[in-house]
Amino acid sequence: MGAAAVTARAGHLATARPAFYARTGNLRGDLVALLHPPYTAWHLSYVVYGAALAPRLDWLALAGTLLAFFFGTGIAAHALDEWHGHPLGTRLGDGTLLVIAGIGIAGGGGIAALGASMLSPWVLAWAAAGTLLMVGYTLEWHRALHSDAGFALTWGAFPVLVGYWAQAGRIDVAAVFVALAATLLSLAQRTLSTQARFVRRRTSDATVHFSRSAGLADWSREQLLDTWEQPLKLLAGTVVTLAAGLLLMRI
């Protein structure tokens, strides 16, 4: 590859959007991208699934659980992920990212301490487990944890179980089955997003050639991305809409 081609490829990778929802390059765009809005909403919806299963819904407990997960996964996990390799390519410095992650962890810990005083000391155990899973996955402490199954259990099953426990004070069979469904949905998310991330972040161009009886057909890079990102958008919308419907049923 010539010098001009290398320069062009580097320029393209530097300006290409690292995710379909990310518009990095300025402070506002970097911060929005850092939150990964569709995926944060997706995984917060699992907390709602768990809570909505409970015989009695405590709205204050649900608000606290959602806020704790937002601090832990929406803020801390994503800040640590960007600090650990800058996959989004934001202009946020390592020090800034660590401060943001610290705010997320401290915020989640503060809510957990308040929940322990109001509900049960076991809230602290759930919070500690969640923090360890989040940090361990994000910083790739172990290959088994930073895997498809590790992602699905940490970001899928765990929020459902915590959401239910915060309401009922126990784990029932129904919650386990819904946690399994969230695990499968998270595996689908992981499968689709892994391919899309590779094309978006590791390639400067892509073309797929199809040989048909009627002749050749080509797909561009954007068409290829659509095969994974359109299902991701639809799944994200479905998961969040279902969570909203479950909450409306409890009003």
Question: What does this protein structure show overall?
Answer:
By secondary structure, this protein is mainly α. It has one domain. It has 9 helices and 2 strands; from the N terminus they run ααααααααββα. It has a two-stranded antiparallel sheet. The termini are far apart. The model is unreliable at 1-15 (pLDDT under 50).
Q: What ranges have pLDDT less than 50 throughout 5 or more consecutive residues?
A: 1-15
From N to C, what is the helix and strand string? HHHHHHHHEEH
Strand content of the residues, in percent?
under 5%
Largest sheet: 2 strands, antiparallel
Figure out the total of helices.
Answer: 9
How much is the radius of gyration in Å? 20 Å
Tell me, briefly, the overall form.
Answer: globular
Number of strands: 2
Average pLDDT over all residues = 90
- How many individual domains? 1
- Strand sequence of the main sheet, in spatial order? 1-2
Distance between the termini: 62 Å
Q: What class, by secondary structure content?
A: mainly alpha
Helix content: over 70%
Key features?
251 residues; mainly alpha; 9 helices; globular; disordered N terminus
